[in-house]
Amino acid sequence: MTMDLFPTIAHLADVPLPENHTIDGINILPIPEGQQQELNRLLHWRFGNQWAIRKDVWKLIDGKTLYHLGNDPSESTNLSKQHPEIVGELLKHHQAWTREVGNR
Is residue 70 domain-shared with residue 47, that is, in the same domain? Predict the structure, then answer.
């Protein structure tokens, strides 16, 4: 993701990351170097007032629309009513992320 470019390039340039700013990306070099097979993390997007979070196969958009990307990669079926517990879990993760990196 784009958010991973800064920490990855900083690592390549041997430049330390700023200590007074939250960086939500990671250095992805261990993946192509074979040290890590996959990323197991939450992914967040924010554009204006719209946002989304993805965890594993689940994607929640604006706290209302839930998709199972493994079964529905085209995001055509909203499963939020069938899985309110997953909506709640992802909403909590999103709120924690917003507190950490800010609402900008």
Answer: yes
Structural domain total, the chain: 2
Range of the domain at 35: 1-39
Residue among 77, 74, 76, 44 at smallest CA distance from 62: 44
What tens digit of pLDDT does each residue of 3-58 get?
Answer: 788 888 888 899 988 888 777 777 777 766 656 555 567 888 888 889 999 898 89
pTM of the model: 0.67
Q: Which two tokens stand for residue 20?
A: 């007074």
Q: How far apart are CA 80 and CA 43, in angstroms?
A: 18
| E strand spans, 50-92 | 50-55, 58-61, 65-68
C-alpha closest to that of 21 among 92, 102, 96:
102
CA distance 14 to 47: 31
In this structure, the answer to whether residues 35 and 76 fall within a common structural domain is: no
The DSSP H or E segment spanning 44 is strand 43-47
Q: For position 71, which CATH number holds?
A: 3.30.1120.10
